[in-house]
């Protein structure tokens, strides 16, 4: 086995163990915070302790995924720092191993992290987040949401089926089934869409069938008012969440929203953030190298490790902040997503040049 492969494995193992430690700490922290946050809803409907724990566990992948670049930075920083404390990095440099070669070793384990992050974001997060929100809604008896049957809700004597809830809370493909005892269907009202205004739902393109003992009467109208206890707040939980979609699904959903004349900025921002996650993770791992080597030369190891940790948190806040500012001030979503990554890439290159 060559020295190069041994070097890659040694550095990679150190960074991997440190990253797993960071991962475990954040997992415990998120679990505790989510449990405390959800305790207030325990006892409502069928939302018991089992439903709470199930929701928390299924929500964790999304929380971890959102902080993945920062986790990679912390893991790489701590892993390289442990090597520096044992003078292994100094010995490597004394043996003639260049900084660029060490960066190559870090990049190899970083590639593993990037592949893992993409797989989690494209497969685990969409499924787990959907199951979490659906299970919570069912336990709270808000409604039932099926893959093909849409959203089912009960409104007094009516059973309501909603095909889709758009981001502006417009309802598509609304079907209202009215029953009277004993479980006898009396009318069926269908509408292409419904929007909430002046405390009442406005149905559009309505077809209504009224069932009597001896006949079925059908009628059509361009619009109709629908008084219901259902409010936008009730159906909001069933609007499609960007985090619950893979990159491909996000792209297709953006096209769907455009066809329905909906604002797509929030979904475009999530789309670009997903696409840029591998780049952001690579930048964060690269940023760990100059911090650790700068510490070897100038001392202050603990202080600079703390600064490295803070940089990871600052990156996450900037990433969110630029996104919110972009949505608020109408900036291009790609620009809002790429600016934090570009800023930290320039910072990493500048620091690498200083320690080279």
Describe the structure.
With 356 residues, this protein is an alpha+beta fold. The protein has two domains: 3-141 and 261-355, no CATH class; 147-236, no CATH class. It contains ten helices and seven strands. It has a seven-stranded antiparallel β-sheet. Helix 5 (99-139) packs across helix 8 (265-298) and helix 8 (265-298) packs parallel to helix 10. The longest helix is centred in the middle third of the chain and has 41 residues, at 99-139.
Looking across the biggest beta sheet, what order are the strands in? 1-2-3-4-5-6-7
Q: How would you describe the oligomerization state of the chains in this entry?
A: single chain
Mean pLDDT: 85
Helicity, in percent?
Answer: 55-70%
End-to-end separation in angstroms reads: 28 Å
Number of helices: 10
Shape: elongated
Secondary structure category:
alpha+beta
Low-confidence parts:
none
